[in-house]
Design a protein that fits this description.
- This protein is α/β, with parallel strands linked by helices.
- Helices cover 41% and strands 17% of the residues.
């Protein structure tokens, strides 16, 4: 599948004057599985390097990349010869050409109505959560879990002793050598430490948030399993700490389990009162190294003055406050709701929370 996408994109590059050889295409097919296909920047750089695009063609390459795989209108490209319209590149195979073994992508038959696309995952990334059919729920939950694992694998600048590969630690190696009369039989090594973020996640489980709760919950499940310093709360008309329930739950069926533990699930919401309760009972969980993420549409039935006061107190304790609002995924959205207007002055980042791409942007922000 990847080979077909690369072959089509390489043809687009050649038709616009960017020289790409068949060997470059093979290199690109080998390189793409080594990067995160959900990260457009990684895919772009991997293709630019593997296809050996010269520096003076980078701008044209970026334009064609966005047009070909970015969901925009593609530039006009000469149609391929009719004889090749029923052929595509198959999976890579090692073949003997009489002189040496080569990695080739042989052509195989393709039906006339089959057209390459960026990938099904790329389409899911931008599909709103409230429009996901039941048949795609499991795939979306898996992608959300993978995003959480990327956040858990963040590396800091600190170097710590490593037992396997890593940078050679000369000082420790020399100290070890003293025990063997100067013979350094095994070099000591260091690697960058895993830097786990400290997070507090507050999820609005009111009725208006129901189409989005399941996928945000899948993301929270994976975060809780991968990162130790994560606290998860659900709120509507009252606050419930669900960190332990999420930790022991599986993604499948977890929504029903949590719904039974959270009072007034899919009911109304009083954001200000719940945040005030959080600060009173769990405020010590928020410090200067803590990022607080609130996922809510801001449609509050409670007192806006209490919401503003609670948000001000929360912002004073936390490192950063991020508010994810699914309604912000619409370009026409304006924070006109009274609750959202009261909270906004105390929010560092207002971000959409309506699709997988918004969760991906959240991981980059937290990194």
């Amino acid at each position: 599948m990847i080979a077909a996408h690369v072959a089509r994109f390489a043809g687009t590059l050649r038709s616009h004057g960017v020289g790409v050889s068949l060997g470059d295409e093979v290199d690109a097919v080998v390189a793409l599985p080594l990067v995160d296909l959900l990260d457009r920047t990684e895919v772009r750089l991997a293709l630019r390097i593997a296809l050996k695009v010269p520096r003076d063609a980078w701008r044209e390459f970026d334009r064609l990349f966005d047009a070909h795989w970015g969901g925009r209108s593609a530039p006009e490209v000469p149609a391929p010869p009719p004889a090749d319209s029923h052929r595509r590149r198959g999976p890579l195979e090692w073949r003997w050409d009489g002189t040496r073994v080569r990695l080739e992508a042989p052509e195989v038959e393709r039906s006339g109505d089959e057209a390459p696309a960026y990938s099904p995952e790329a389409l899911l990334r931008r599909k709103p959560f409230d429009r996901i059919p039941r048949s795609e729920i499991a795939a979306m939950e898996r992608l959300a879990s993978r995003l959480a694992l990327r956040l858990a694998a963040r590396r800091s600048r600190r170097l710590v002793p490593a037992s396997g590969r890593g940078l050679v630690d000369l000082r420790r190696s020399l100290r070890r050598g003293l025990a063997t009369e100067g013979d350094m039989l095994r070099l000591a090594r260091r690697e960058r430490a895993l830097d786990e973020p400290r997070l507090v996640l507050l999820y609005d489980t009111s009725g208006s948030m129901e189409p989005y709760t399941r996928f945000h919950l899948a993301f929270a499940l994976a975060l809780r399993r991968a990162i130790r310093r994560v606290e998860i709360f659900a709120f509507n008309t009252s606050l419930t700490r669900v960190s332990r329930a999420v930790a022991r739950a599986r993604t499948s069926g977890s929504l029903d389990e949590l719904a039974s533990e959270v009072p007034d699930w899919s009911g109304g919401t009083r954001i200000g009162a719940c945040l005030a309760e959080f600060l009173t009972l769990h405020g010590d969980r928020v410090g200067r190294d803590t990022t607080v993420v609130i996922v809510s549409d801001g449609l509050d039935l409670g007192e806006t003055d209490l919401l503003a006061e609670s948000m001000r107190a929360l912002r004073g304790r936390a490192r950063m406050v991020v508010w994810m609002n699914p309604l912000a995924g619409d370009r026409r959205y304006e924070p006109a709701a009274a609750g959202m207007r009261a909270a906004l002055p105390h929010v560092d980042h207002l971000a959409p929370g309506h699709d997988l791409a918004s969760l991906e942007r959240l991981t980059r922000l937290l990194n």
